[in-house]
Amino acid sequence: MTDSPSSLGSLLSNVRNQRGLSKQSIAQALNVGVRAIEQIETGETEPDLTLLNRYAEALMDPAGSDKAPAMHLRISGPTKLSGSIVVRSSKNAAVALLCASLLNEGRTVLRGIARIEEVNRILEVLESIGVRATWSPDRGELELIRPKTLDLASMDIEAARRTRSIIMFLGPLMHLLPEFSLPYAGGCDLGTRTVTPHMQALHHFGLEIQATEGWYRARVDTGATGVRTITLTERGDTVTENVLMAAALYPGLTVIRNASPNYMVQDVCFFLQQLGVEVDGIGTTTLRVTGRERIDADVTVVPSEDPIEAMSLITAAIVTHSELTIERAPIEFLEIELSILDEMGLDFSLSEEYPAENGHTRLVDITVRPSKLHAAADKIHPLPFPGLNIDNLPFFAVIAAVADGRTLIHDWVYENRAVHLMELNKLGANTQLLDPHRLLVQGPTRWRPQELVCPPALRPAVCLLLAALAASGTTLLRDVYVINRGYEDLPNRLNALGAKIESFFG
What we know:
Elements: H1 5-18, H2 23-30, H3 34-41, H4 49-60, E1 71-77, E2 82-86, H5 91-100, E3 107-111, H6 117-128, E4 132-135, E5 141-145, H7 157-161, H8 170-173, E6 179-183, H9 196-202, E7 207-212, E8 215-220, E9 228-231, H10 237-248, E10 253-257, H11 263-274, E11 278-280, E12 286-290, E13 299-301, H12 307-319, E14 323-330, H13 335-343, E15 347-350, E16 354-355, E17 362-369, H14 393-401, E18 405-410, H15 417-421, E19 430-435, E20 438-443, E21 451-453, H16 458-468, E22 473-478, H17 481-486, H18 490-495, E23 500-505
Parallel strand pairs: 2-14, 3-13, 9-10, 21-22
Antiparallel strand pairs: 1-22, 1-23, 3-5, 4-5, 6-8, 7-8, 10-12, 11-12, 14-17, 15-17, 16-17, 18-20, 19-20
Helix pairs in contact: 2-3, 5-6, 5-11, 9-10, 10-11, 12-14, 12-16, 14-16
């Protein structure tokens, strides 16, 4: 049980949004008014146990869902993959660039942007507040034009609450509106993901945020001038991006220390440079940004390739004991991962490096061959870039499950993700949860089919899909919306390599 009516209400609201349910449908199921639901979710009133149980039943009733029928996957294995597959553009870069487009009064064109549910949710929010978004006929380019005045009163709240990326609206909006409100961010269920670093950093630009009743209520004092030196208390990707966006329309020098140099941050830096903003120190932990009073430029931006998708495909090859070539992999953001895999005995080779279309990112083709792996000698844990990427850590649980010996996976960042990875046991893995952050994996594994429901976390959900490829029989993976949040057409792309994955709805 949560510790206050407001936290209970926020939990109910988040689950309702993740289930695609409206306040109206819940009110109808409970035979109460919509206002009563609003009062519960904002913490104005606390439901009694009877009403709370009825609320929970309504949340779990598939018949009440306002969204399209859930998508499920039927995976037949064991699978042997072969051939080559091209890494697509970055999910995290895409959502950051969509948010950053609010800085530009001109025409922003995003080429090759990931067509995933997370992008769809941000686009729904942008369009609801007045941004004109137009896809090219082949959907290869997305044109964005910001109106002179944003209509935040018309924001699609349901879409906003289903993505954590809404938090990156803070940096651009503080230059456009003296006061505004944003709904609490959603996304993956990975435990508490604090916004305090965002509040602390943006305070330097005069942004004051009050978090209350399911909303971030922001007020801007733009009186301060001069050089701003900001030391981030957390080397996070989204907080660095938020500060970059805030600095872009600050007509002075901003020095950001302890900045994330990760791939999606670099993409935002490259975009700002195209907009005429001076950004020095890209790829380091100290960024120097000289902003502009106004940004009005017509630009075309190409997001970089996704290292997390590349790691997913490497894992698919490993778990199925297949030879597979992963093309256009951003090697700079995979070097630690490949070093660990090399130590575990993976047989792989790299092509010569070549530049990405953005002119900055270094790409290679990675060929993975069937290998007999052994457990990592030391624990596997993430670190800020250039360390092992936190989003790549879950894949090592699947990889460790096919390796001889025992591997310790330490996810010190997220409270719940190691718990979600315990679902691998249902497919035959031998994992032991030491605490919410540490997982022991004993391999090798004889994978077996199972009927599963996707956990509410993107990477663990994909891990289940990849493990199911190696299981002897048919695995049912239900409600794969969370996978579609971060991957574009993954089942069909795996099928082109030899997988047998059938999607169905219901």
